[in-house]
Each structure stands twice: as C-alpha cells, then as structure tokens.
Structure to design on (514 residues):
C-alpha cells in the first residue's frame, strides 16, 4: 500500500515540476478544439448537428486524457533507461504494486490535464448541462486514463527504447482516438466505421463523458462504465503478467 | 564466521552464450569481498542474479540464509545496492530520493527521518538535501546512492564499480565510507572494480572471474604469491591475459543516444 502511494506521489511531483510538459501536452488538444471547433462549427450546424463545440469538447477532453495517459505509461522506458527502474525492482515489494502505483500516478496526471482542457473549453463557450455532472465526468475521465496508462505501461514493459513511441502514437493511439466518435458522431457514420467504433474502448469513455457533459449518449452510461472497467481490468492483468516476467 | 552469500554451480545463459558458467563461491559475513574480472567476464550478470534482477539458468544461491528463488523479498531486504549506472530520479530532491527508498522498504516515519538525516550527513550531503538530483555532480550522485542503499540497514551492500569516472579525491572519500561501514557497522561489502590498486587496498578476499568462470580465489596476498607477482594488478593480468577485451556499447548506451535524439537532457 505504501509502495503504491509513494509511486503515485512521485508521478505527481514530477508532473508539477515540469512546466514545459504541462504546456506542451495542452497544445494538441487546444489546436484540435479551436481549429475543428470553429472550422467545422458552421457546417455541423447547417447539417442539423447542433452546436459543434458542445459535441466536440468531450472528445477533446478525452484526447488530452489519453495522450497524457499513454505517455505516462510509456514513461516506464525512461525509468529503465535512466536506471531508476532497477531501484524499484530490487525493493521488497510486489511487481504488481509497482505497476499499480505507476498506473494510478499516470492516470491522475492525465485527469488533471483533462480538467485543464475542460476549463479552457469553458472560455471558448462550452457549457455543461448540469455542473454537478462533473462527478460522473471525473469518473469517466479517470477510467479512460487508467485504461490508457495501464496499456502504455504494459507496452513499455516489452520495449527497451523510445523509438517505438511514434509507432504507438500513429498506429494505436491516433486510430483509437479517431474511431471513438470523438470528432464526428458515430451513429451517422458508415457501417464499417460504426463497427470499428464499437470495438474501440475509447468510444465508451467518450460516450460516457458526453453523457455527463451534455446529457447525450449513444449507449447506456452504465454500460459505458462497465465496458471501461472491463477493458481496464484486462490490460491491468496483462500488464501484471508482463511486469512480473520483466528482468532488468 | 559463516558465509552470508553462498553460490553453488551458478550458470546464466543468453542463447548459446554462457555469461556465467557454473561458478561457486561464498562470501563471509563482515568481510570486504572483491569480485574482479575484465569487461564482459560475467561480473554484472552475477550481481544481477544475486540481487533478484535476473533469474539464473541453473544453480542455487543463498543470501543472508534466504533462498534466491523462493524467498525473494527476504533476500531483497537483506542487501543494499549501488548499481554500475546511476539509478536516481533526477527530478526529485536528494531527500525525496532517500524517502522514496525508505517507504518502499517499509520503514516507518520516525525511522525514516532519523536514518535519512544520519546517512545524508555521513556522505556530506545534508546541506544539499532539498536540491534536485539533476544539479548534482557525478561524485555527489554516487555518494547519495551509497547513502540510499543503507537506509534499510542491510547486512550486505553490493557496489558495482562505485568509483568509475570519479576523481581521486571522491574515490578516496567513497572508499573511506566503505571501510567505515565494514569495520564499524559490520556490513558485508561485495564490490566490483576495474581499479586493481583499490581492490588490493580494500578487499579481504578476491575472486577473479573471466569468460564466466572463476580463475582465482584468495586474499590479495595469496593471489600474488600464487602467481609470483608483486601487485594485484600484475596477478590479475597474469591470470586473465594481456589481450584487450571488447568494450561494446551496452544497450544502455544505445538508449542514451536515443534519449538525446528525443531531446531529454541528462
């Protein structure tokens, strides 16, 4: 328990101390929010989709969350590279608690980034239907963050250098992001996209977030929750297995 | 004196290569034990197996009476280690690095505060305790790592080339801490080094390993007598030959070059 706590605190401290990282990782979501939001806004409205910013913000918040989360997981590679991983691996704590501590830490940081993007969204005119729905929103953000941090950690346990990072971003994270209904509604998309969207764990995170933010969702929010928890447990246990087999 | 580390018929193979080839030795409680050999001889692989970072292919090991395969957490609590490469978190302060370690090893708050202060003073870093480690010189980082490895009062400390790349002053300091540890606290010291004169001065007993096999055991004096030489360095060269060993870029070096490419400063 103490081990999980100290690993969690460590991630937070490192995050707070690295201003360039905080600013840098806000850049991409903001670009998407402003360019897509205002660029497609009128077309979306004309097509009868309503206010595009309202539709887009849950997707962009999720974007900030997953990018930060996957990076938080991949950071394991830095720790291996700079030797710090060995320090945790020779300690008398289970590998699983090391993994859990890291995952909670990375997920917390990702949620904070998501909140930052949400606050900025308010400035460009986004309105939540009901402010109290921030609590379920935080739950969906956390579960999405947890899933992606655990995924990043599991992948990183098999990698020795950062070269694979662009591959992960371009062939895993970006497709998951675009197929999740984050920037266009899935229910009016071609059948093939709809099916792919159904297989994408992020779809459920974004659907849940959209429900919490603007009261609109494709699935039952409880189902979103359940699916996210299920996916998270699956990667967590795959990660646990890989972590326990890892040699330093 | 009873052995605190026992290694029996230990082998580690990577593919076809036997990095460590059926070695047996023991380390007595309280002694300063030097594990020497040229590059690629199998020193670090052996240390990694003794510290639970690598699983052996064959053989049995006991550390502080605990079996390396079945009592890993007890083994882990028994030793402290200073790795060959730095293993500090550069974005944390000296104190935070110490505290992180202490919490991982399950020390309570009062013990942590007391031990950390004592150890940081021992290595002359108490006045820098709130500075980020990335502002430390190589020698300071080494001292901090030595202090950190002692927080949980281990019975054995592994020092894998603790003085490499440091100036003579710092090296002297480090060896004097190590001598104190051994003589005043009774900690068993297991060290590797490429500086033979340091090993000769410090070690009660030496094992020389080459190509994964042990080729010499004894006190520095015994080894000199056996090889009919006047210094441990000559004895070492006589046993291992004069041929140069490939000093290949380790995977870590490769990683570092990628790190540079990614703009992460070290």
């Amino acid at each position: 328990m103490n081990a999980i706590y100290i690993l969690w605190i460590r991630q937070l401290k490192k995050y707070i101390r690295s201003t360039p990282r905080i600013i840098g990782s806000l850049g991409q979501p903001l670009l998407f929010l402003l360019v897509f939001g205002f660029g497609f806004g009128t077309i979306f409205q004309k097509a009868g989709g309503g206010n595009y910013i309202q539709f887009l913000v849950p997707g962009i918040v999720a974007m900030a969350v997953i990018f930060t989360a996957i990076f938080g997981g991949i950071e394991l590679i830095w720790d291996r590279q700079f030797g710090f991983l060995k320090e945790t691996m020779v300690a008398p704590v289970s590998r699983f608690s090391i993994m859990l501590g890291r995952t909670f830490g990375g997920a917390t940081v990702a949620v904070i980034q998501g909140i930052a993007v949400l606050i900025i969204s308010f400035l460009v005119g986004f309105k939540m239907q009901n402010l109290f729905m921030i609590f379920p929103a935080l739950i969906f953000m956390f579960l999405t963050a947890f899933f992606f941090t655990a995924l990043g950690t599991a992948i990183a346990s098999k990698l020795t250098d950062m070269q694979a990072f662009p591959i992960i971003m371009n062939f895993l994270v970006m497709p998951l992001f675009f197929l999740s209904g984050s920037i266009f509604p899935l229910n009016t998309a071609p059948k093939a996209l709809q099916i792919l969207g159904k297989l994408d764990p992020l779809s459920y995170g974004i659907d849940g977030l959209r429900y919490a933010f603007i009261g609109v969702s494709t699935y039952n929010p409880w189902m979103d929750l359940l699916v996210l928890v299920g996916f998270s447990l699956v990667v967590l246990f795959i990660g646990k297995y890989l972590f326990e087999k890892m040699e330093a | 004196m009873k052995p605190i580390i026992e290694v029996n018929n230990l082998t580690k193979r990577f593919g076809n290569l036997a990095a460590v080839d059926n070695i047996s030795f023991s380390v007595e409680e309280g002694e300063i034990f030097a594990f020497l050999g040229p590059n690629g001889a199998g020193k670090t692989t052996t240390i990694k197996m003794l510290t639970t970072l690598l699983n052996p292919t064959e053989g049995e090991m006991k550390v502080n009476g605990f079996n390396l395969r079945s009592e890993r957490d007890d083994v882990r609590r028994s030793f402290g280690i200073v790795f060959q490469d730095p293993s500090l978190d550069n974005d944390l302060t000296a104190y935070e690095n110490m505290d992180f370690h202490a919490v991982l090893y399950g020390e309570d708050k009062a013990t942590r505060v007391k031990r950390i202060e004592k150890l940081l003073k021992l290595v002359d870093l108490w006045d820098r305790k709130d500075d980020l480690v990335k502002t430390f010189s190589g020698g300071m980082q080494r001292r901090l790592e030595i202090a950190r490895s002692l927080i949980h009062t281990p019975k054995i400390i592994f020092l894998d080339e603790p003085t490499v790349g440091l100036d003579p002053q710092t090296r002297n300091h480090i060896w004097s801490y190590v001598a104190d540890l051994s003589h005043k606290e009774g900690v068993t010291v297991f060290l590797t080094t490429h500086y033979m004169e340091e090993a000769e001065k410090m070690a009660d007993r030496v094992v020389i390993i080459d190509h994964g096999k042990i080729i010499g055991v004894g006190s520095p004096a015994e080894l000199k007598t056996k090889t009919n030489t006047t210094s441990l360095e000559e004895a070492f060269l006589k046993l291992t030959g004069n041929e140069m060993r490939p000093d290949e870029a380790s995977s870590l070096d490769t990683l570092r070059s990628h790190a540079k490419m990614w703009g992460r400063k070290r």
